[in-house]
Amino acid sequence: MNIYLSDTAVQHLNLAISVIFFLLAIAILIFGRPKRFADLPYTRTAFVFWMLQWLGFVLIFFLYNKAPDTVVLLFVDLQTSLALGFFFVYSAGKEFQLLRIIAYILSILTVSTIWNFGFHEFLPTWKSMWIDFSGALSALAFILFGLTFFRRYRLPSLPLMLVTLCYIVLQRPVYTGRFIEGHLHPGWVLALAIGKLCLGLLFYSLYFFVPFTDDALQWTFTRPTTVAGATVGAQSKFPRLRELLLGIIIGLLGHLIGSALARPLPLLFGHR
User: Is residue 179 within 8 Å of residue 69, measured between CB atoms?
Assistant: First the structure.
């Protein structure tokens, strides 16, 4: 049976969920005062970025049908940049450097804004390529988010990892519908709202518990140096990108799967 859902209803649902999680984060910061915030300041700073990315979602869905495509995509990139800010702080742990992370965020936002407005201005008919940068950047931010939780919490974070991967797949058809086809498929937007709800709830199910480590997550490994056939104690560093590269590959695969599903799959809800 085909259940009718209006575009406006599912957009408002996304907006409502985003507002709730944004206000919840503000309440925790002001009134909750978790012990981990006092013991480990990096958890508070990371949580501020978590809160701000929900403000980004609020702005996205508030402006979804009210602003030009470039402006909406600008706020999508802003939300992604704030999500990357969470990753930078949370993965650095006690060693985070806020000014450096702010510089990273501003650099990412500058590049994405130049791509957004420049591509739209000079190659307006290449819409798929125009949104690919933002889509891939968002997929990367989500997979790094999930990967960082997995590195800190390990097996208990697997549901969060699964929901993160599903969200990456689900958001691509919404990108396609909003920015290329000019029509949002209510079923996909409803699924995105459910994904936001699950993502937020699973985040709170983990974040205030003590992880396996609060140290900076190292992306290097050491390999013994061999001299004259014998292994000695001296260590040389090599980039260890296994988890990071695997995460990026999974994120891009999710992005591509979402692209493949955006057109041929019949609508689950709403209009044809």
Answer: yes
Rounded to a whole number, what is the distance in angstroms from the first to the last CA of the chain?
Answer: 14
Provide the pLDDT confidence category of residue 260 given band limits of 50, 70 and 90: low
Q: What is the distance between the alpha carbons of residues 239 and 218, in angstroms, rounded to a whole number?
A: 10
Instruction: Check whether 237 has a pLDDT greater than 50.
Output: no
Neighbours of 252 (CB within 10 A): 16
Q: What is the rounded CA–CA span in Å between residue 213 and residue 95?
A: 13
Alpha-carbon dihedral sign for residues 141, 146, 149, 154: negative
Cα-only R_g, the chain: 20
For the chain, the domains span 7-212+232-262
pTM (two decimals): 0.81
DSSP 145: H
Beta bridge partners of 149: none
Can you tell me the distance from the alpha carbon of 265 to that of 272, in angstroms, rounded to the nearest whole number? 11
Residue 160 CA: distances (Å) to CA of 5, 41, 63, 119, 144: 27, 23, 28, 34, 12
Three-state DSSP at 193 gives: helix
pLDDT of residue 253: 60
Q: Tokens 């702005």, residue? A: 59
User: Would you tell me the crossing angle of helices 69-92 and 41-63 to the nearest 10 degrees?
Assistant: 170
List the beta bridge partners of residue 239: 220
The span from the CA of 10 to the CA of 24, in Å, is 21
Q: Is the pLDDT of residue 184 over 80?
A: no
